[in-house]
Amino acid sequence: MDLEARAHAEHPEALRLWLRLLTCTQMVERDLRNRLREAFDTTLPRFDLMAQLERVPEGLRMNELSRRLMVTGGNVTGITDQLEAEGLVERVPVEGDRRAFHVRLTPAGRQQFQAMAQAHEQWIVDAFAGLTSAEIRTLHQLLGRVKQHFLETT
Q1: Which of 2.30.30.240, 3.40.50.10240, 3.40.50.2300, 1.10.10.10 would CATH assign to domain 42-127?
Q2: Which pLDDT does position 58 carry in this prediction?
């Protein structure tokens, strides 16, 4: 039984909506994880780390990667070690700081990420294929209002 099924009619609509959002998120994420594994023999955390590096061609420090991915430094180090062993990322010393380095995609890593990103984009489009373009825009706008309210009240 999923989280959504546990909410009954007597629960507030906001709770039922939250559980529906959570269920949909989990379903899409599970599908993405499976597709990444099947198509590219990789994991979602590896994809996410490469996506962060793709946005910053000069690379990021490990602590910045941890912050952006919202995971511990140990998690980032483990994934980075794997990707480096495969020739997909490289560690580059930071000038003026002998202990620090940037992690950046190699040309092979950039090429692999581009292939994964194209597939990922299509998988997301497929996940929302049951909605019209207008419905997608409306849902996006409504969730934007939820986000804005949250930002204003916290």
Answers
A1: 1.10.10.10
A2: 94
